[in-house]
Amino acid sequence: MKLFKKIGLALLIVFIIIQFIRPAHNTSEQLLSTDIAKIYTVPDSVQHLLNTACYDCHSDNTRYPYYAYIQPVAWFLARHIKHGKADLNFGEFGTYSIRKQQSKLKAIINTIRDDEMPLTSYKLMHAVARLSKEEKDLIMKWATITKHDLQSK
Amino acid sequence: MKKIISALAIAAVSFASCNNADNNNTEADVKADSSATAMQSDNMEGQNETPMNGILTGYLQVKNALADDNANDAANGGKAISEAMAKLDRSSLPEAQAKAYNAVADDLKEHAQHINENSGKIDHQREHFEMLSQDVYDLVKSFDKTQTLYKDFCPMANNNKGAFWISETKEIKNPYLGQKMPTCGEVKEEIK
Fold first, then answer.
1. What letter does residue B182 receive in the DSSP assignment?
2. Is the C or the N end of chain B the one with fewer CB within 10 Å?
3. Interface of B with A (CB under 8 A)
4. Is some CB atom of chain B closer than 8 A to the CB atom of A67?
5. Are B160 and B170 in contact (CB under 8 A)?
6. What burial class does residue B165 get, using C-beta atoms within 10 Å of its C-beta: 0-12 exposed, 13-18 middle, 19+ buried?
7. Which pTM value belongs to this model?
């Protein structure tokens, strides 16, 4: 029992120490000229869905929930955001080649259709990110039109 | 209470080790990159295999593997494309090739990488293969080939929306439907 107490105390100390190891926050106030909204038509209804269901991990602006200030949750989130942005960053959409933009729009359509995105773990914590069928259709339709317009470029 | 604290701490440590695993991956990537560079110098005597040809060879490996429903081999083909791209020096390309390459390079790189990383998901590999085929088509149109290539089209691929691929043989071997419908498709263009 004494041993358990010692271990518990040690772990508690570890827990407290890791609170000081904070990853940098993914927030930026400015809207880049390469943002998808600056180069293509994004209707307000679609932009709203992108903001609420996608931008936390796929842009330079994450809206952090309160629990994101507790370690190791923040590490977990930082990793997700890093991977999310590497795969697709709506804020840097304009830096992609036209071909890559088409691929990304196709990937958006496929992942929304197959329910791969938003991630289940994200939807668990964000009720607004649980897209209805109509909302999914809205995003997929917009992506299809935008992709189609790009094919003539 | 103690149990809760221990559980939290264990969770903390395991998350921390997750982060470490991530770092290890990056190190492995760096190692892979340097071994690719080593291979480059080993290959100097094999001058006829240019990086552009290397991309095509990797692509055909992916294509043939998908036609055989072999996701592992497709993944290897994806890796071969990435390695060929790492060897390619853009400034050494003639203008027309450089233009074609620059227009597709970032896209090509990602598809190759995803095909490499998804050896367990052949459907996902096939989705990337469709866009990969477009990139490779643009590339092969821009450089002199040592062999005749064929642009094949299957109307049933891609959920009946249709999709094409590049092949080194006149005979149809469908990479989208694999062994389910190996001969679906027809030659649309001979690329010489």
1. T
2. N
3. 2, 5-6, 8-13, 15-16, 18-19, 22, 102-107, 110-111, 127, 131, 134-135
4. no
5. no
6. buried
7. 0.75
